[in-house]
Every structure is written in structure tokens, then in C-alpha cells.
Design brief:
By secondary structure, this protein is of the alpha/beta class. It contains nine helices and nine strands. Helices cover 41% and strands 14% of the residues. It is globular, with a radius of gyration of 18 Å. It binds adenosine monophosphate and manganese (II) ion (3 copies).
Amino acid sequence: MTEKYDLHCHSTASDGSLSPTEVIERAQQQGVTSIALTDHDTINGQAEAAKAATANDIKFIPGIEISTTWENKCFHIVGLNIDPKNQTLISSISHLQQLRTERAKKIALKLEKRRVPDAYKAVVKMANGGMITRAHFANFLLENNYVTSQQQAFDRYLGNGKTAFVATVWADLTNVVAWINQAGGVAVIAHPLRYKLTASWMRRFLTAFKEAGGQGIEVVTGRSSAEEIRRSLAYAKQYQLSASTGSDFHTPTNQWVELGRLAALPENIQPIWELF
Ligand code: AMP
Ligand code: MN
Ligand code: MN
Ligand code: MN
């Protein structure tokens, strides 16, 4: 059987629409043989996903996607093969979980000033105990016809610098990499091309990540073009980072991104799973 890895996806523990069990079942149906569930700033879906993975004969790699701030910019760092019972990691991310709740209240206040009432109550209900993200606000705005698409919700309200944007200082990049490492995991830069960094900022960021003990970078993500894979691969080689692959799947209603639907990882680079 050919191996198929998907090392980045979301469940109802954060902003995914499927439960951890449903994510694993769908991955299995898509031919995925090894999966990491990487919810935003939480490991609450891990136990359920691990159990479902055993039942579906699929290899499970415990994971998380942590929100970090470096030089006033937000970066997502995926932690793979972490010990989800690691107490330092658990207590460290609890601060981020509080930050998410506080930020959601502030976003709702800003929306209220734009004549969009009752958003906080709605997103709390939608998240149903999971992490509240801007994706929940986007869905709320869409469902109530304030916008005609998720993208428009970000363009008009939620995106960087838009009217309901709340600047947030997430966890320090260096600390996040350290938490992941001491929980036995490897730290991976999520979707490296989505930050829209200039070449010199990218170099500075990769240097800081490497110095902090980061070991991987996503070379293939759900919608990578051949050109994007080539650019990400070049960063991996230049900074001697191992290559990861992950769809960043959130929901079956997004027809462009599917579990396990990923371009092949280039062969001339060490795959991240050799470090597990
Ligand atoms: P947060 O971590 O709360 O800032 O929310 C970020 C999440 O919102 C991401 O993980 C995506 O799921 C979603 N997201 C961010 N930007 C966009 C966008 N332009 N269109 C649709 N969803 C987005
Ligand atoms: Mn998300
Ligand atoms: Mn992300
Ligand atoms: Mn993600």
C-alpha cells in the first residue's frame, strides 16, 4: 500500500466542521495512512482522534497548530509528534485559550459598532466548547447575510487592519518552539507563503525559527502550486529544515481542500516523519 500523509487539519476542537472521529473516518476514506490533527491552540481533540485512528487502522501523530507572534506579526507553528499529556505544553497553551476568548469579545464589540449585534453569543454557540477563531465570526457574518462569502467577511471586517480586527499578541515564537520540543515534538512552520513576507523578512524569520530549535517547514499544503512547492522547498534546503505536508482541511464544504489531497513531496528533501 502506498503511504499517504496529511499532517495538518482541523476538527470541531477548533474551527473545523467535523468531529475528531469524523475527520479520521474521512481521512481513511480518502486513502490517508498517517494523519496529524492540528487544531488551533488546543489538544482537546487528540484523545478522540487517536481512538478513532486505531479503530480505522490509520496511523495517528499527535499534533497542534499554535498561534505565535514574532516581530509583531502572527505566525502559525505546527507541533507534530508531541506528547498530548505534557503538562508544560498543556499549561502553556491555556494562556492562548484565554486570549482567544478575550479577543472574541473584543471582535464582537467592534462588530457591534458596525451594527452587527450578538456576534459573541453566536460564536460561543458555534464553537461549542472548542477554540473560537475568526473563521467562526466569518461563518456568523455569512449565515446572517452581512457578507456573501467567507473571504468577504475577512476583506470587510476580520482581516488584518479591517474594522473588526483586534491586534493580538500571541505566544512568543521562541517559547512555542521550546514547548513543542520539550513535549517531544518537532516544530514546523505552517503554510510559509501565506504570511506575504518580503525576501529579507523571510530570511530573518527562518533564521529566528531555526535558532529557536525549529526543525520543519510545510513544503506542500492543500492548494500549493508547483511554483509554491519549488519556493518552499528552496527555503527548506537553504535552512536545512525537514519537509512536511498537510492539507489544512477545515470542512467538506470547501471544495478546494480535501484531506489527503496533496501534491507529492519532492524527493530530494528529508520528510518530517523521519524525525518522529
Ligand atoms: P484566527 O486564528 O482566529 O485568527 O483565525 C484564523 C482562521 O481563520 C484560519 O485558521 C482560517 O481557518 C481562517 N481564515 C483566515 N483567513 C481567511 C480568509 N481570508 N478566508 C477564509 N478563512 C480564513
Ligand atoms: Mn483555521
Ligand atoms: Mn494556520
Ligand atoms: Mn490550520
